[in-house]
Specification:
The strands form four sheets. Strands 1, 2, 3, 4, 5, 8, 13, 15 and 17 form a nine-stranded mixed sheet that branches. The protein has a four-stranded antiparallel sheet with strand order 6-14-9-12. Helix content is 20%, strand content 23%. Helix 2 crosses helix 6. By secondary structure, it is α+β, with helices and mostly antiparallel strands. The longest helix is centred in the first third of the chain and has 19 residues. The relative contact order is 0.22. It is globular and about 45 Å long. The protein starts with a helix and ends in an 8-residue tail after the last strand. GO terms for molecular function: dioxygenase activity.
Length: 337
């Protein structure tokens, strides 16, 4: 990368709109305009510490369990269709807390996908009034929570997460309504793999879908959205102005690593985030993270929410709950999907 690269990266990061945690209306405006919002201080130090302590206990239990001898590696590159996408352990994590390792077999990549159902710090945060209040400011009427996950991004080992849209993996119809709530539990920096986003890309349609392969169980494959699929073609949430939806973009780096030197030219901006900062973004926003090349971890806790008012969870999604009543409802006015 040229000498100007780090300076340009820093300027892009500084230009991002950041709002105080309590200013949810400003967050909603940023979300609709840019596809994401940064809420500093959304979680307090005690809340962050409680989640990290709870995960340390869960992680110790995993390494002492028989499951650790039958490791499931989690991948986000071109090999993911042959990794977790054919793992019963992965499919069965929809209503449980399962652990997925890094390729070295010595450290964890992630834990998921139902930490929000636990009666601990993760459940308390997921069910909190501040999360429900934020979602109402974003336009949700009856939000439900299908998925939560804890990402470890360990020092010097945590790999890149390739460019993608969350809506590819968590599909609703007739409109695409998923949003990600990305909470930093450590300071996320350029060195340890902070989030990168492509500002404004949330108005672009979903480029590919991760769907169940009817011929094999369990198995997932990537397909292009069908032309008549309204959930794919109207990928912006229903509360986004329809006039701002755009035609499909050609994104040759979909699902592939992007060199840091090319990110700015392709419209990406880094989002450094102090511990306790929340980045909330539309499921159609193009985003990624680079490898952790530092000696420090980059833990995050992430929620994915969808609308349940007049919206259906797609049967082709990998995640299908067996929970009585469906997905966890958030807020007093929420329903179950």
């Amino acid at each position: 990368m040229s000498a100007a690269g780090p300076l340009l990266t820093a300027l892009l990061a500084l230009s991002l709109v950041r709002v105080a945690a309590y200013d949810v209306e400003a967050a909603g405006a940023s979300f609709r305009r840019d596809g994401f919002a940064v809420l500093e201080g959304f979680a307090g130090a005690d809340e962050v510490a409680a989640m990290k302590d709870a995960m340390a206990e869960l992680e110790a239990g995993y390494w002492a369990s028989p499951q650790a001898a039958q490791a499931t590696v989690f991948r986000t590159d071109a090999g993911q269709s042959g990794a977790q996408a054919q793992s019963r352990y992965f499919f069965d994590s929809a209503d449980a807390t399962h652990f997925f390792e890094e390729p070295d077999g010595k450290r964890l990549n992630k834990a998921g996908h139902a930490l929000h159902l636990r009666r601990d710090a993760f459940g308390a945060y997921s069910r909190s009034a501040k999360v429900a209040t934020l979602l109402r400011a974003l336009g949700y009427v009856r939000p439900v929570l299908p998925q939560s996950m804890y990402i470890f991004k360990p020092p010097a080992v945590g790999g890149s997460v390739t460019s993608h849209q969350d809506a590819s993996f968590l599909r609703t119809a007739p409109a695409q309504t998923v949003a990600g709530l990305w909470l930093a539990l450590d300071d996320a920096t350029l060195a340890n793999g902070c989030l990168w986003v492509r500002n404004g890309s949330h108005v672009e349609p979903v480029r590919r879908l991760f769907v169940r392969d009817g011929e094999r169980d369990p198995s997932m494959v990537f397909v292009r959205p069908p032309p008549d699929d309204s959930g794919a073609n109207h990928l912006a949430p229903p509360f986004l102005d329809a006039a701002r939806r755009a035609a499909p973009a050609r994104v040759p780096w979909e699902g592939s690593d992007v060199d840091e030197g090319d990110l700015a030219a392709r419209g990406y901006a880094a989002v450094p985030a102090a511990a306790g900062t929340l980045v909330v973004f539309a499921g159609t926003l193009d985003h990624l993270s680079l490898p952790n090349t530092s000696p420090l971890p980059r833990h995050t806790f992430q929620l994915h929410v969808v609308e349940s008012a007049g919206v259906a969870w797609h049967a082709s999604n990998w995640l299908q709950t067996a929970r009585p009543g469906g997905f966890l409802a958030l807020g007093a006015e929420s329903g179950e999907l």
